[in-house]
Amino acid sequence: MAPQKPTRDGSTGVQSLQRAFELLEHLADTGGEASLSELASTSGLPMPTIHRLIRTLVALGYVRQNTNRRYALGARLIRLGENASLQFGSWARPLLTELVDEVGETANLAVLERDEVVYVAQVPSRHSMRMFTEVGRRLLPHGTGVGKAILSVLPPEQTRALLARTGMPAYTEHTFTEPDTLLRHLATVAKQGYALDESEQELGVRCVAVPIEGAPTPAAVSVSGPEGRLTKEAVSRIAPVVQRIARNLSAQLGTDAATA
């Protein structure tokens, strides 16, 4: 194989590709928009390198320049992200089915995408009264079990910035609407290893959700059902099962990465 030719800043094509993806991830971490100086600060790359890579990404449609001269994630990434989420959901479906078979309630898989949780897979329960979300539905994370599970493993400053961007509207009287209160609650979620949605999104609905370590994007798996069936006593039985499925999903992700 011919050696990689260095670019004008001395990096190879492979290095440039890696750095371009790192810049996209830095943009995502800032909520999707940043200046060149902010990217230089977070990435540690020289400004000429950032400028060259950003120019290329803009030309390809993966980054756009706003009128305020800041850079944001481009529309061309939407198709890639949506297809990746669907693939992720299809791949996880057998384990979601196993979860439903064991606990008898609806299982969901959701990912964090552009400050929202989007449901990418669902296996419904066999009960006549079924669930209240559907694949493709988008919700703000502060009012959902899967959202709180995901937020519980993010750095607090990142969570606080996300909440500042989205606001915290009340879906029900039980929804968290104050950042400090939610952050204290998320510390408890992180300690116990699962989140509960106690009628915070829809009245009469309880949800047990667990974050998935090592997912390509922040993700969580959950079990949801009416409070009459998914009682607090049932939660103590169901939560360890959801945690086991989350670990199995994480382990499969690690296996796939190792064999790629």
UniProtKB/TrEMBL annotation:
HTH iclR-type domain residues: 14-75
Annotated keywords: DNA-binding, Glycerol metabolism, Transcription, Transcription regulation
InterPro entries attached to this UniProt entry: GAF-like_dom_sf, HTH_MetabolicPath_Reg, Tscrpt_reg_IclR_C, Tscrpt_reg_IclR_N, WH-like_DNA-bd_sf, WH_DNA-bd_sf
Keyword DNA-binding: yes
Pfam families: HTH_IclR, IclR_C
An example Gene Ontology molecular-function term: DNA-binding transcription factor activity
GO biological process, any: glycerol metabolic process
Boundaries of every IclR-ED domain copy: 76-255
Role played: May be an activator protein for the gylABX operon.
The protein's name in its UniProt record: Glycerol operon regulatory protein
Organism: Amycolatopsis marina
UniProt lineage: Bacteria, Bacillati, Actinomycetota, Actinomycetes, Pseudonocardiales
